[in-house]
Amino acid sequence: MARSPRLFIPGGVYHVYCRVARSEKVFENPGEAQHFVDTVKDVKRLHGFKILAFCLMHTHYHIVIQTSEIPLWRSMARIQSRVARGFNSRHRFLGRLWQSRYKARLVRTQQYYEQLLAYVHLNPVAAGLVADPSDFPWCDHAALLGRKAPHLCDVGPALRGFGETLALARAAYLSRIRVVAEERWMRAGVRDLPWWSEVSNDDLLAEIAGHPGAEDFTGMPVEFDPPDCLELAQIAKEVCRPSPFGVQDLNGRSRGKELAALRKRFASLAVEQYSHAVRDVATFLGKHPGSVSRWIETPTRTERLGPQNHDIA
């Protein structure tokens, strides 16, 4: 079944989260946590989005992102695939790191936004890891309060709307933290959070936002991003279209420098941009998963295509 398209608003604010498969405590390891942060920082620099809140738990992450013109799904696909490939390479592991594709919800009011920032940074407190979110090493609560340098957060944009001055904004944010800490939903599942439960699914949200004049709470016009994932055969067809080769050549036994480059480009697009598993790509091409992983780790023109890949979606 084809995945439903996600709502995308350039400049929109999203709550994004995803869990590790089997709830393994991957990010309890400081090295893995740092690799995640470094990866997000690199993609943030490339894609130009802002991060307004961040918390990396042992088994999952929460990020509040204000998007650029590049669709959110492209940024998240790149982040999750790079983190997964790095983990698999270091641990010689073949398999899926993430439980599923990321989940995201557009934040539609300032009230929900303020609740969201508090919720994200209170996660380690709710989990019993620390008594004060400032003491948790992998969130940016302390950075918003000016107590340390941020891992990822853009402090000014994050606190905009809390108060007219930085001091007032920080005081208002801290006040919101105290209120949200007492909310019953603070320890509920993500789907029961106020900004998630307002609509039942992304399709309904898209329907609401699709009315003429609809906008997010920052006043940006509504757009829709393409489906999260194209089938491998469709990606292969589009990759081969400007070349003298066909899909049958791509997954055949023929060799040659140009064909090898085409296979590498296909593999990079399928994994980096469209979140297909390395093993599935290898099966499609009739190659060993280790070979496909090495192709993707080698820089290719795909790394520099950026938004031009829109014509494939």
Care to give the gist of this entry?
The chain has helices spanning 30-47, 72-91, 110-126, 141-144, 155-159, 166-181, 194-197, 202-209, 232-240, 247-250, 257-273, 278-285, 289-297; strands at 7-8, 13-19, 50-56, 60-66, 103-106, 223-224. With 313 residues, the protein is α+β, with helices and mostly antiparallel strands. The chain folds into two domains: 7-224, Alpha-Beta Plaits; 232-312, Chromosomal Replication Initiator Protein Dnaa, Chain: A (Orthogonal Bundle), CATH 1.10.1750.
Task: Give a written overview of the molecule.
The protein has two domains: 7-224, Alpha-Beta Plaits (2-Layer Sandwich), CATH 3.30.70; 232-312, Chromosomal Replication Initiator Protein Dnaa, Chain: A (Orthogonal Bundle). It is built from 13 helices and six strands. It has helices spanning 30-47, 72-91, 110-126, 141-144, 155-159, 166-181, 194-197, 202-209, 232-240, 247-250, 257-273, 278-285, 289-297; strands at 7-8, 13-19, 50-56, 60-66, 103-106, 223-224. The longest helix is centred in the first third of the chain and has 20 residues, at 72-91. The protein is elongated. The protein starts with 6 loop residues before the first strand and ends in a 16-residue tail after the last helix.
